[in-house]
Amino acid sequence: MRYLRAILFLALAFLIQPASAANDPSLDDHSLLTADVQNYIGYGAIVFALVLFIVVMLVLLRTFKVLTRIILKYEGQTEEQIIAELKPAKKEKKPKGEVWNKLLSLRPLSEEKDLLIEHEYDGIQELDNPTPAWFMYLFYSTIVFAVAYLLIYHVFGVGQLQYAEYNTEVAQAAIAKKEFLSKAANRVDENTVKLVNDPAVLASGQAIFKQTCSPCHGEHAQGSVGPNLTDDYWLHGGKINDLFKTIKYGVAAKGMPTWEKQLSPKQISDVANYVKSLHGTNPPNPKEPQGTKETDDDGKQVKKELVSALVK
Amino acid sequence: MQPEKFYYDNKIVRNFGIATVVWGIIGMTVGLIIAIQLYHPAMNMGNQYTSFGRVRPLHTNAVIFAFVGNAIFMGVYYSLQRLLKARMFSDLLSNIHFWGWQLIIVSAVITLPLGLTTSHEYAELEWPIDIAITIIWVIFGINMFGTIFKRRERHLYVAIWFYIATFVTIAVLHIVNSIELPVTFWKSYMVFAGVQDALVQWWYGHNAVAFFLTTPYLGMMYYFLPKMANRPIYSYKLSILHFWALIFLYIWAGPHHLLYSTLPGWAQSLGVAFSIMLIAPSWGGMINGLLTLRGAWDKVRDDVVLKFMVVGLTAYGMATFEGPMLSLKQINAIAHFSDWIIAHVHTGALGWNGFLTFAILYWLIPRIYKTELFSKKLASFHFWIGTLGILFYVVPMYWAGFTQSLMLKEFTAEGMLKYPNFLETTLRIIPMHVVRSIGGSMYLLGVIVMAYNLTRTALQGKLVANEAAQAMPLEPVHTIARDSTWHRMLERKPIQFMMLALLVILVGSFVELMPTLTISSNIPTIASVKPYTPLELQGRDLYIREGCSNCHSQTVRPFRSETERYGEYSKAGEFVYDHPFLWGSKRTGPDLARIGGKYGNSWHYNHMMDPRLMSPGSIMPNYDWLLTQTLDTTTTVAKINAMRTLGVPYAPGYEKIANKDLDKQAQGIADNLAKDHIKVKNNKEVIAIIAYLQRLGTDIKANKTANNN
After folding, report:
1. ipTM of the complex as predicted
2. What is the CATH T-level fold of the domain A199-311, as seen in this structure?
3. Global pTM?
């Protein structure tokens, strides 16, 4: 038995040691098993050892019982005496609900008349029960909590009050965002935006337009609160870069909202491209031209068939 | 000594009982209507008097002050007489109290839909009604103390301690929260502004819950529960401990309604700490109630009245545990401004106040009519449909609150808000709102069944208007035995008792209110924040009249999700001219603190005419009457003068040229709208409200976009 446990222990130690060493890349080559597999074997061994421990304990208990029986017999006790000796001491059974009552510090109902206070109000009597112990502990612990809370935030200065908490939140988000954007191809801005006529881009742009732009610019960009976006006239420039900029930062004086908080750079690029693609579609009920006339000097002519297909 | 014969006044109890049931049905029906408006805006019936912003205060006032208020008076007038072995002090005062209170409610029903409101939550009624409330409350107090003085019972029972605390605290709360400067007969400005006004309002609002919805009901529980169950109160010691702890601690907890606002950090933390300490004292009442039922649980199985009491006490326990949890900042950050809070208050209101009221009505009406309850089956039906109704109400609202709050806080990996459009989150929770209104209808149906049941009960019996009773007169004080404890002695000295209770509630009030109201460093001023122009001021009053703050907050909390969505977080100095503050407590729509300049004037014009033109699917009602109604500029002079009295730095004599400035600014907006082919006269209300909205939050707005023009 002892040997078996010693062997097991050694095996365990052996298995765990390489698993923890796996973090060191220089040792990787020396191990036959991957770190994951070694870890699983390690966990299995721990569970196995625990189960084994319980089994061993049960076996030992049984052995002691048998030994006691033999010794008692040797001492000349009768079979009845031995059985009585080996029987586990039986606890006296408590009446039902007593544990519960103890927990709540309740006295048995039968003792109630000793607790009655002599006064009564319109037939209502009161009992002289103490406040339950658990209730007092609850009360004290909330007081401790309250004191600790005030100390943490206002005396020791450990806890962050709202503005410090906000700065932490924003700083953490900025790091996470930078990390993500450095990986993703989402870094387009008003200087790098390109005019494209990829149907996927235009479809995405159309979806955004429908949701965010059409309330003011009309369903077909014919203009209503905002200007017509299909004609040759532009208030803030008609190049793709200008469009991107206008959408991103908005034009507060004219009521065009800032969208950079609501649309990602990719989405702004998509919707700017979609708007460019609408040029010359001549929708019904157009708003009168606003701004200056500009010729389409982006160099690429958008395919009209594609646009008309999308508009439908 | 001979026992004295006297009569209990049951008629006044009956009157308050009828008023309870009638106003209960009205208040809950109004609640149901506005609940449906939240997914079916047409339910506002297309007119301004029944739109959500005006009617929601009517719902809250009707259920709190009419339904619960009358129920309190019913319970107090019944139990007080019996606990003191005396008839009410004066039948005349009882009747003035009853009719005066009903008149106040009727005036609320008239003025609130007319848009006459102070905008202070649960204290919306304008100054003439505030005065009337004060008078009636004092009459109630005189009547109560008069009865106490002519009592035939030496010591005051625990129920009466709670009644005394209720009386004195509500008086203090009502007076301080109603300090307002009248401008016209139906218009006043709050004396405090911004953060200070917010603190006063939520010190009041929170303790209205404590001392109008909780302490009088605990008092009634202490009388009616032992009577119903025929059991002694579990622990007299617990009564003493939780009574004093409750009233002392409750008064401090108000600032937990203003977490993450511009309220000074120390005041917020006090609010949190004291809210946590409230758990045990609040539960003391529940424990003492539930343990009083010890040995009577077999009765609960058969007796519908006790069933109502048990569910009511349990709801009280749940709500008073949830409350402290909600005041923890981490939880509050999610729950505040969301439907979670609606679920929380309705657990308390429907479960605790509603069910206790029903239990008392079912128990008391047959007794004063000397008959049996007409139908136990109907009462049992009421119990089950009411319980189910509460569940159907609160579960979807918890769900909705969670869903919307988490959506509003969600970011994409690119660091953008996942749901930048607020409306998207609103539309997502509409199914929950539909289920909520079903739950509400079930609860209301139960109340209607109860009304029928009680009417039949009354008809089959006969009111014992004056119930005969007899008791020994009080023997002279010097002959009585010494009291065993100091508290026992206090129980026979009502004035000292009241003074001590007053002292106890004033401690927290002073510590929290005084520094914020008097020390200027608690509210850092900002030089660029200027008073409103006359047109903006008039627009602001329209915003108050329409009750916009019932759905829109005006405070950006320092969370990344909010600064991304709305702009820079709010600063205390921005609100120094806001008499009253308009932060709101619920975001059914988006925050408006930085709405100024976000959209064009024509966007706002179209949005007021029909919100769905600009935001398809929006649940905001049309405000088309603003387009046609003419702005009342006759009040401008009085308003400028009143604001100057309150410390807003308008130049001397400015009131004389204020209307000229107003016209000029209005014309500018009208001209701007004309550019977008919107023809509107410059004297319409919509111009004023656009002016106000375009001003909001712009005083300190960063000038990033200006360079781009």
Report:
1. 0.91
2. Cytochrome Bc1 Complex; Chain D, domain 2 (1.10.760)
3. 0.82
